[in-house]
Design brief:
heterodimer; A: 254 residues; alpha+beta; OB fold (Dihydrolipoamide Acetyltransferase, E2P); de novo design (two linked rop proteins); 5-stranded mixed beta barrel; 4-stranded mixed sheet; 5 helices; 9 strands; B: 201 residues; alpha/beta; Dna Topoisomerase Vi A Subunit, Chain: A, domain 2; 2 domains; globular
Chain lengths: 254, 201
Amino acid sequence: MALIKTKGFVLRAVPVGESDRIISLLTEAHGLISVSVRGARRARSPHVLTTQVFSLGDFELFANKNRYRLQSSELIEPFSALQQDLERLVCASHLAEVMLDILRDDLPQPGLYRLWAYSMQAISHAPDPLLAVHAAQLRLLMEVGFAPRLDSCLGCGKPVDTGNWRYSISAGSIFCDKPACGMRSTDLLPLPSGGLACLGHIRQAPLGRLFDFSLSSEIRRFIIAFSASYLTYHLDKVYTRLDMLRHLKPADPS
Amino acid sequence: MARYAPSIGRLITELAKLPGIGGKSAQRLAFHLLGQPEDQVSALANAILDARKTIRLCSVCCNLTDQDPCEICASPARDHTTICVVENPRDVASIERMHEYKGLYHVLHGAISPMQGVGPDQIRLRELLARLRQDDSVHEVILATNPTVEGEATALYLARLLKPAGILTTRIAHGIPMGGDLEYADEVTLARAMEGRREIG
């Protein structure tokens, strides 16, 4: 049995038994690990806050093969802004679900760890958390091998220019406006030039500047729709957490 | 299960479905029950069946009750101008143990939890809003959801919902537990305790 010290984000916290929790901890060095925490839900437990979902903390763990047990913990950042804004909490919950579907247990993926760290900051503080979560999920898909071809037409190889371009999610590429290009794709849609620029930014920007952009309402709508379709197509799963945002407009009780 | 008579196997299987009970515990409980006199086992079985048949939700506060409205809602001795909102019936029992609170309750049966896919429509929020709409004698709503991510989000959502109605909405205090040690308190709890400080003497 070895004692390891690691910094990590709690991506999921599942109550177990009377007062225990099992947390899914995203760490830089060990990847996604499952940690059991005895008594974590008791009011006097030193782990009550550090093991709450979305917390960032320093953790000391006993590791036995692929099983981890929490020994001690210290809170670094609780991301309280998420608790104070249900829209941000829904966005973070959605991204956590996508992350948990993509991450492999016990496999270090430092790039994804850093992406999660920057994404949490953006979702907590950005003026538009919904746009931030879509940018984060597109970058996540690009990081794990689902990057769309954005530099030239898949049909004829023409480099991208200022003309009219179209995109196909199933082909994972853009197409020029020649009728022959993309004729086999059944989901061809017009690609606004601002949308292409934004997708290029999301693919290439350093993580520290990933969320530094502003969009017109038309391009914002495009990016959100593109990101939602791209996720559903490539992960072959319908994600419903963000649907909750539609029901969050408070009704008047009076 | 083939090691046991079929009826024992069935008992173990049913007990193992209870929360927090694994296969070994179920086996232990089953053999304990088999070792008891028949009248005691019947009393247990009848208690489970009676509770299941008679317990329902109070039409006013949504707490579990065997009479409608529940004892608390029907009591004229309670303060009907204050409603304490809690996540589950166990929280009502906890607050009642304190013998300090004399108002009414509303049980949400959960908290908004996007991680679990639980939205405002899946908990008993609508019933609370309808209750407040019908009863204009309520002056204060105390939000006593758990101080967890989900509980805090639910409290804040409710507070925003109730604000336009002009009802005083308060949140239970957070801070250092009695008998606790400041040295071991985390920064968030300490900050909340500082925010909620009050004059003494």
